[in-house]
Amino acid sequence: MQSKIPSPFSLSILLSLVAAFAALVIARPEATPLFDYLPQLADYWETGFWELLEFSMQMMLILILGHALALSVTANALLQRLVQLPRNGAQAVLLVGSLSICFGLINWGFGLIGGALLARKMGEQAQKRGMTFNYPLMVASAYSCMLVWHGGLSGSAPLKVAESNHFLVDKMGVIPVSQTLFSPLNLAATGGSLVLLSLFMWLLAKRSTTTSTLSYVATADVPVAAEKGIDYRLWFGRAVGLTILLIFLSKSWRLQTPAFDLLNLNYINGMLFGLGLLAHGTINRYVLAVETAMKDGTGILLQFPLYAGIMGIVKYSGLMAWLTEGMLQWANAENFGVITLISAAFVNLFVPSGGGQWAVQGPLVIDAALHLGVPLPKAVMALAYGDQLTNMLQPFWALPLLAITGAKAGEIFRYTALLCLAGFLIFAAVLWWM
Q: Is 225 domain-assigned?
């Protein structure tokens, strides 16, 4: 069964072919012959292939710097204490799931890697203590951070529209995170997700009688070097980290701007950089941690251009406009949030990047929101919720998690599919009633 499931890289290629075929069938102008349109599709794909280089770098830094922070001695010591707490497999899943969601709300890269490390260490501890536990479910619960991340502090779309020079500023202005990430709508959705998804995972674990066996040896510990020199001095590494951190923390004071209004992708990455150096202490240990993080992020790095190529096809062929407008024609002021949620969830299967999807689908959603009189912050968050929802069905972001835990995508899919359904009910309810 496992051998029949395509790898995430192969899946990205298959999705590219599906997008190209859909564009041929749906978006090709009637007056354009088939063989004349194929070179146009190739141009669309090539244009998209290189279009997300800046955003890809921002996303890779969030992943790598968040991963490196999770590999620090400080974070590792905390994880070791946490895995001692559960008394049975259900409690272990509850702890992994709820903490992974909290980590993901802080930063999606930290949540993804921190949750993976927590799941691995929890599995090892459960096996040592002879617990009955379901390891695939435990890993799926760690991946639940990607079901809530876009409503957290590293959410791409809310952070992008908070920038003074974002590409839709002339149409919608600047929307600070106080109106998106810290709005009553998102606080309800986020709080509800934390409580209800954690409870749901606990109930699934209670019904499970599987005893898993971990047959691999995985380690993410960064070795301690006894060398001498400035790269190995705690005072130097921590001084650099503290300086970087203070530069970003003082930006609010220097610009006389509320701190929440400064949160964007670059600000988050700068903070992670400083925190990582502080947590590791020395330059050497931090570089080694980043090298480990880069290795686990290789699969994502390779797939970014492929999904950017898919984005180019659906964007420039008009396929995205056809899809979004087709769904939004059923929308009104009352159901707009739910319709946008569904359309964004579908698009995310082909463009599994929050910022990339916002770049392609955002203008259409904002146009519709302006036409229907829907508050723009709600439109942004509806798209964000849809984008994160089908991460549970799309293995793109699971690559580092699978590498760290040793689990297979096919093993966790049935559980992440259930989480996707539960998440849809939560987000749809919030968008409908608020």
A: no
Q: What is the arithmetic mean of pLDDT over 198-223?
A: 71
Condensed to tens digits (0 to 9), the pLDDT of residues 42-64 reads: 999 999 898 878 878 887 887 78
CA angle at 303 for the pair 297 and 304, rounded to the nearest 5°? 90
Query: Burial level of 406, CB count in 10 A (0-12/13-18/19+)?
Result: middle
- Among the candidates 264, 294, 324, a domain finishes at 294
**Cα–Cα distance, 197 to 389 (Å, whole number):** 13
Kind plus residue range of the DSSP H or E element containing 338: helix 336-348
> Could you list the residue range(s) of the whole structural domain that residue 239 is in?
230-294
Output the CA–CA distances (angstroms, integers) from residue 228 to 282, 284, 337, in the order listed: 11, 11, 58
Q: Tokens standing for 180? A: 């998106």
DSSP collapsed to 3 states, 295-309 = HHCHHHHHHHHHHHH
Question: Residues 338, 389: one domain?
Answer: yes
Q: What percent of the chain has pLDDT over 70?
A: 93
| pLDDT tens track for 325-336 | 787 788 899 999
Tokens standing for residue 37: 């349109």
Alpha helices in 83-155 (DSSP H): 89-106, 108-128, 135-143
The structure tokens listed for 184 are 């009553």
Give yes or no: residues 270 and 306 share one domain. no
In a shared domain, residues 209 and 238: no
- Residue 147, Cα to own-chain centre: how many angstroms? 8
Task: Let me know whether 303 and 290 are in one domain.
Answer: no
Residues 308 and 287 in one domain: no
Residue with token string 């290795």: 295
CA distance 345 to 338: 10
